[in-house]
Amino acid sequence: MADPENAKEATTLRYAFGNVLSFFILLLIGVLAFWIRLFSVIKYESVIHEFDPYFNYRVTQFLTKNGIYDFWNWFDDRTWYPLGRVIGGTVYPGLTLTAGTIWWILNSLNIPLSVETVCVFTAPIFSAFASWATYLLTKEVKGAGAGLTAAALLAMVPSYISRSVAGSYDNEAVAIFALIFTFYLYIKTLNTGSLFYATLNALAYFYMVCSWGGYTFIINLIPMHVLLCIVTGRYSSRLYIAYAPLVVLGTLLAALVPVVGFNAVMTSEHFASFLVFIIIHVVAFVYYIKGILSPKMFKVAVTLVVSVGLVVCCAVMAILIALVASSPTKGWSGRSLSLLDPTYASKYIPIIASVSEHQPPTWPSYFMDINVLAFLVPAGIIACFLPLSDASSFVVLYIVTSVYFSGVMVRLMLVLAPAACVMSGIALSESFSVFTRSIKFQLHGLSGSSQVDSGDASSSTVVAQNDAGKAEKTEDTAKERPSKKSKKKEKGIVDKPSLKAKIERRLLVLPFEASIFAILLLVLLGAFYVVHCVWAAAEAYSAPSIVLTSYSHDGGLHVFDDFREAYAWLSHNTEVDDKVASWWDYGYQTTAMANRTVIVDNNTWNNTHIATVGTAMSSPEKAAWEIFNSLDVKYVLVVFGGLVGYPSDDINKFLWMVRIGGGVFPHIKEPDYLRDGQYRIDSQATPTMLNCLMYKLSYYRFVETDGRGFDRVRQTEIGKKNFKLTHFEEVFTTHHWMVRIYKLKPPRNRIRGKTKKPRSQKTSSTTRTKRSAATKRNPWH
Amino acid sequence: MARSTSKDAQALFNSLRSAYAATPTSLKIIDLYVGFAVFTALIQVVYMAIVGSFPFNSFLSGVLSCVGTAVLAVCLRIQVNKENKEFKDLPPERAFADFVLCNLVLHLVIMNFLG
Fold this sequence. Notes:
The complex is a heterodimer of chains A (781) and B (115). Chain A is mostly helical.
């Protein structure tokens, strides 16, 4: 009699120990996720990276200074001059509100952290939360062991690190956490059927809508999964409780966010959810009728309804199709269309096509970004099918759709990362359990003892098979010792497994040495993964790209801080109201750091305005001066990498300026700038190219640096070496010539004689036609 | 052919009526509430069709609040129904508390969106 009691105590003690251990493991995973993202703070400094985060930082500064009501109603007149931008209605507020709340809480506790520090460290904190959310999600799908593995994998996966290092203060930093958490709550509601979790699910979806435009992925994936469940015959009332309140509450909450507004009910991205909403109601009603009628009567009902309902259905569908087809894009937005049809953007919207993040990824980038997980994912998919539940079918659907979308845009590799981690966690956990089970079985077989001290289901059934007399006793002991991994399997085993099942279980046992070797190999695999992730975090993804470094040939570190030098010069040496024109890449940084009004910035919402700036950069000096003067521009900023070999400068981006400008103003034609289809800036370049503003502003006085004008990026000598600027004057060039700032010369007070003829004869025809074309079609006069 | 279908329809209608009469009263009350909510939503849609959809946010919040309470009431009915095997260890008080909480969140959002 003492034995079962002792066994019970041992079980609860082991259970408690397991819980405490997994709590500490989770804590360590969170700390790991936080610390691995701090490389850029250690290598450079605690600075905000890239371009978009500067805008978010500026908005957060405004929020902390002026409070939330002014933030909702903020009209920003320092950007997109002269149009301005309604910040309250065009920005996803989740990130800024989160960081603002954290700053406010810390300051009210008298911890005086600056806004910049809070912004820099928001992403690592939320990645720790995201790994805990992955643990919860995978625990719902497969069990706690798989959950811990998946959380550990997500803490380190390079694809997620790339968008959430310390300093990368962008929407994805909090959005990925919101995504995983929403999926976890959905699966939890599906598994438990509790309306409480359904409410929480809707609120988590609201947080996701606030944070990122990628929320449309959720609102299309969940209806797809519901449809899949209905079609495969897995409809249950828990599915209804999980889905229907989410649609109603979710649509309302999405409409609350000003960026989304009425798009929540009017764009095609949301129609899938409404369609499935109707379908699930029809299915629920059918099941209800089936439940209360006898089978014969049900058949009668079906024939009646089908004949009448089909007519009504066709009429409704016809109306709907007519409505949707009447809009040219069938109701979808440009970005979503480019996801569905990858060639759409390059044909119709050059701005979307020009962003480097929107290009399709190359094959090596998969291995770089998710490494070992790339071939653990198929194993995980198979493991999800044994057995198939609602939750595991959801995860399979998630990975399949995210693999497709990651193939369209390299930016969406980020959405693939959590799915890959969940699948790999499941695969690793399952394989570990198979090997340890084999080892335990082999050990017990070797020692000949029938005492089961593992609680593993299959070893208990195998022992029971050996000795039928002891079958009941071992089953009882197995029942009393749930281990956290095989809890679910045990419930199935304890209800009298058939002989066939026992034989099948026996086949899952592998030889002893093979299992030990396999476990060692799996551990080695994990070690390689960790090494790769740490390397990727340290070397590849920690560059703040506002500060550049390189190693000189004697091993010393050389720092290029030209961008901040230029912005500091602008903020100290120009008037507060001066307007600065540059290509849209640098708009956010200019408004945030130099605090000057810009013409176009990274938001790229107005294609015509950007095309205006592009046209100006592609035109000769006088035409460009007139365009800029009409926009009240005082200073023009160009980025030039030819002296130091910085490849992302404006000359390399110039063809996009031509394409975007040419898309709106037809007198700019791309072939004019190419010699035999090749883009060159040397002596073989076309006269149009050699006379355009971008060439002149980039290479003015460049020949003074080394006497020959050798461009290190293009690896040639430049075509036109000695020229003077007539309408612009150079006011500042940074230390490494990376940023060059020019001022527009004021128009002359007197013009001697009649109107000036064009200066040089050989470009006269092109400039005259261009100028007359520009003046004829100039839309600003 | 037509007579047999109309006889079938009548037999179907009678069997439906008798089957429904057997449901407990509490479920019938919930069904009545659902019907009332859907009816209110339909009236609002007809009103919008007559008068026009400005301001759109008010129309949306009105219709969606009716649809929302209907959906939540159906969820409550599912959870409280004694014939439902999946929810037999869920006490009906817990189901009702969840229903109230979800309605609170829904109406808070509606009040904010009503304008």
